[in-house]
Amino acid sequence: MYTISRRDFLKFSSVFLGATIFSHSKFHSNEQSIQRPNIIILIFDAMSANNLSIYGYPRKTTPNFERFSNRATVYHSNYAAANFTSPGTATLLTGMEPWKHRAFNLGGLVARELIENNLFNLLGNDYYSVGFSQNVWANNLLSEFDPSLDWKLLPSTFSASMKRVLYSSYIPNDDFMSYYAFDEYLGLTHTGANRIPGSLSLGFLGSILFTQIQETPEKDFPYGKPISSNAFYYDNKKVFMEIAQWIEQLNQKSPFVGYFHFYSPHAPYSPHKDFVGFFEDMPLVNKPYHKLSYDKFPQRKIKEQRDHYDEYIANVDAEFGNLLDSLEGMGILNNSYLVLASDHGEMFERGEIGHGTALLYESVIRSPLIISKPGQKKRVDIYSHTCNTDIVPTLLHNIGAKIPDNLDGRILPGLGGTEDFERSIFSVDAKENSAFLPIERATIALNRKNYKLIHYTGYEKYDQQFELFNLHEDPNELTNLFNIDTVIASQMKDELLTSLADANRPFRKS
Amino acid sequence: MINKLISFLGNTLSHNKAAIIPVYSIIAFMIYSWTLITFFYTLPSWIKFLTLKEITIIFAYAMIIDLFESIIVLVGLLFLYSLLPKSWLKDGFALHGTWFAISYLGNIMVYFIPTFKINQWIPNPRLWFIIIFFVAILTTLFFSRLSILKKSTFFLLERMPTFLAIFIPVSVISLFIITIKLFF
């Protein structure tokens, strides 16, 4: 229903301009609001820092990120709070750890009593807020925060095909709960969540349309077209170009906050033909299968997918380059924070491809974070540990808004905070737990200094297990030091278990 | 053309009035049962992160869709019945309608049950749609000639309308709940 054609976009623009004039008093009622910077957040789904040349990856995957970093702060040791979209995005938008916001299930939601702790609400009414996510699970979180948003675009807004959109988009009064009813259950447009539809006819219709999209040949995408998990086809060139136009329109509503969550480079990895075969062959370290590896893909397949992923990142980076050119052309970066981040990483190791995993190795939790502040001209590099929990408090601090006490993040170094090389960072995978009960079946990673401790609890095959790695000496996480480096292991184990117990306390019956 | 179709349908309806409710009850039983089974299959994942109120809303949406879906299937069946040659259908709508509904809806269910792995054999669901349409016609014509199946069909048709006394009120209440949610 909200999918926008070029004509619609022009219509929107004129309405938008009109609305700007009429609402002038609301948004420009005082001098302070005029001086407040805009905030543009670009999230690249499933983008692992380990595969980006800006962080030292041998393949030149991100020349445009590097160009942007000449005027930005680059965080070299940044972590996502989880290994898939729901908890990763909830952390980005609330500044809380997954064990606090509780959106850690597949398609999970932020605890209802914490919904007001979202970036859009915390920025206050002065900010005109727009949210867009091509990823439906991130879109669900935006739906939760809808009362704080001035405009929420539907996931298929910039899609290249109208053949299949969300059933829930036809119920605008309740696109939130109707999503769970129609798109994850009755009609099954999200194939990752459930494979048996609740409605025979809607499910069958969905299957027909899904096949139709897959079958349509597309010569520009040799590995297949970019398709989101609920099967609408999109073209990154169009998506990035139209988002640049959106931002240009939003600039007239300054100050604004725009959250744009791109599905790319999430699987299926579908680079444009210009990027296919872009890189020379590069070996992939062969790592043994883990006891909790789900798929156990052969190394040949893993390497092939890693290569496609790298090509897709290069493709996305090129489109980002065009967007950056547009933003620089508008001069908007002189009065805006621009945040580049990812909700989680991606794995090509131990038999796993992607992030549908219980594992928390570096590739799936180490995520990019690059932020430019208004008018920044020089590059700053930060090497101490940071986390995606830090984005919300940092932005609030920098615009002078109040930071709620219950946020877990800190103000980022280089943007008002100080570097802390002793800092502990947690990442959690607890998708099989109830959000209303203590976490008892989970993988939890603790990164501190050079070390990383991973704790597995509640798994039949691998219960109460610990792995300790020295990331400086063993960046591939191949040698478990838990029974060797016992002093460090004991300290980190105590810290991890104490933090988990603290997180579980409110959910235990007294 | 449309008037012709409506008059066709009206004619079919008037000739098969008594059979419509029993056949509808078979359709409703299959559609609602499928939804209820899949609902309880999915429930364990929902209760991990959705509240009781939210799950109730999902259930209400499902019951409304089932009501409309079952009516649409019935209308489609009546329409199809009015198009087929009368000599094929001398046993009446009750018998043919029942077997067509069972065969057709049953084969769609088979498509979705992972054990059968239909989509590995026939990846294109449109092809499956065509295959099961003809399978349903053949099943209907063949099974309605077997006297033992005739007897069991009438046995079923006598008892199935009882379920409508559960399904229809639940759908009406659901419609009421969703209307309030959407508009008030």
Structure explained in plain terms:
- The complex is a heterodimer of chains A (510) and B (184).
- Chain A has 510 residues and is α/β, with parallel strands linked by helices.
- Chain A has a domain of 335 residues: 3-Layer(aba) Sandwich (Alkaline Phosphatase, subunit A).
- Chain A is 33% helix and 16% strand.
- In chain A, strands 4-3-5-1-6-9-2-10 form an eight-stranded mixed β-sheet, sandwiched between helices.
- In chain A, helix 8 links the parallel strand 3 and strand 4.
- The longest helix of chain A has 32 residues.
- The radius of gyration of chain A is 22 Å and the shape is globular.
- The N terminus of chain A is likely disordered.
- With 184 residues, chain B is an all-alpha fold.
- Helix content of chain B is 84%, strand content 0%.
- Chain B has eight helices and no strands.
- The model of chain B has no long low-confidence stretch (mean pLDDT 88).
- The longest helix of chain B is centred in the middle third of the chain and has 32 residues.
- Chain B is globular, with a radius of gyration of 18 Å.
- Chains A and B meet through helix 9 and helix 10 of A and helix 2, helix 3, helix 4, helix 6 and helix 8 of B.
In short:
The complex is a heterodimer of chains A (510) and B (184). Chain A is of the alpha/beta class.
Oligomer status: heterodimer
The run of helices and strands of chain B is: HHHHHHHH
Structural class of chain A: alpha/beta
**Shape label of chain A:** globular
Helix coverage percent of chain B: over 70%
* DSSP strand tally of chain A: 14
Tell me the total number of β-strands of chain B: 0
What is the averaged pLDDT score of chain A? 90
